[in-house]
Design goal:
The protein is an alpha/beta fold and 331 residues long. Helix content is 40%, strand content 12%. β5 and β6 form a beta hairpin.
């Protein structure tokens, strides 16, 4: 993601500055561009992700540091666009100045790919941290976006449920591993595979918030019912209560009658959990994923980017400046 470039207008927007304020910051030396124009190209000022991080520090526009909030993106039903949403959500948090750790739990490594990292080439994955007790800091890789790090995934993760089975306190392995980096990040964004097993149970036990991306169709209801039954079981059997559950409708097309009917059904059956903001159908998600960048880096003006920003704003409003965490007790 080192190749991401910001125009002057977008750079000012991300920093929360007006064009005049950006010009003044450049004159004072607080902001400068390290991007050299290509030979023969117009002398247009562009900024890199490193320029963004440096400007935040010099201008004092870094968000206050906070205890790490762990946010899990999970749906037992596949094909809901969960990974595109979670990776773009995490990127946007980092772009806003937060320290973010993305944890790819899926052996397919799609979240890693969406952040420009080839999981197949990763020397270590979460498997090594949980099963082999490798320090998590040795598993984490940088994405090229300052403040956005990644625990990559590949096919070695496919046997983790079997490896967890005989271990003591197996439900709490991920929670305990994450304690190693508790003070290093403001957010951990966990992208889970569409299945239920010991790894996803670990993810649920570690999370403060659960995000459930769904499609506006009636097949989504079965997956939601199963997921909520599982969450209820965690509350009763393992005494773990999530702070928040957010259902977000993804790839929504209001011109489809079935989509409107499904949205109305979700509003009726899950009014306390369904976000008002939907993420509209947007082909730019697939295009961004193929380039190995989140939607905000590919096309920040797209419907997808606009809607994920609105989702983030609504979530922040519901939690209340990201809330006061109910920190988990040691297992």
């Amino acid at each position: 993601m080192e190749q991401i470039r910001y125009s002057s207008r977008r750079f000012a927007e991300v920093l929360g500055l007006t064009s005049r304020e950006l010009a003044q910051a450049e004159e004072s030396g607080a902001v400068h561009s390290t991007v050299k124009p290509a030979p023969g190209a117009a002398q247009k000022t562009l900024y890199s992700v490193d320029d963004l991080a440096a400007a935040r520090e010099k201008l004092g526009r870094v968000p206050p540091r906070r205890p790490m909030r762990k946010q899990l993106f999970l749906n037992f039903k596949g094909g809901t666009g969960k990974t595109s949403v979670s990776s773009s959500y995490a990127f946007r948090l980092a772009e806003m100045g937060y320290r973010v750790l993305v944890i790819d739990l899926d052996s397919q490594g799609h979240a890693s790919k969406c952040l420009g990292v080839s999981g197949e080439e990763a020397e270590s994955t979460l498997f090594d941290a949980i099963i082999k007790k490798t320090p998590l800091t040795k598993v984490i890789v940088q994405t090229g976006m300052p403040g956005l790090d990644l625990v990559p995934s590949n096919l070695t993760m496919s046997t983790i449920d079997l490896s967890l089975m005989p271990l003591a306190a197996r439900e709490f392995r991920l929670r305990n591993v994450l304690k190693e980096v508790e003070g290093a990040y403001d957010f951990a964004v966990l992208d889970a595979p569409p299945s239920f097993g010991l790894l996803n149970l670990n993810a649920l036990m570690a999370a403060h918030d659960l995000f459930v991306p769904v499609l506006a169709d009636f097949l989504s209801f079965h997956g939601l019912k199963l997921l909520f039954e599982t969450v209820q079981g965690l509350e009763e059997d393992l005494e773990h209560v999530l702070d928040h559950i957010f259902i977000v409708i993804n790839a929504y097309n209001a011109t489809y009658k079935i989509a409107k009917e499904a949205k109305e059904a979700l509003e009726k059956h899950y009014p306390d959990f369904l976000l008002k903001q939907v993420i509209r159908q947007c082909t730019k998600f697939a295009q961004a994923s193929s380039e190995g960048v989140p939607i905000f880096a590919y096309d920040p003006e797209s419907k997808g980017a606009t809607d994920i920003q609105a989702v983030l704003d609504e979530v922040q409003g519901r939690i209340g400046e990201w809330g006061k965490l109910k920190l988990a007790e040691p297992a």
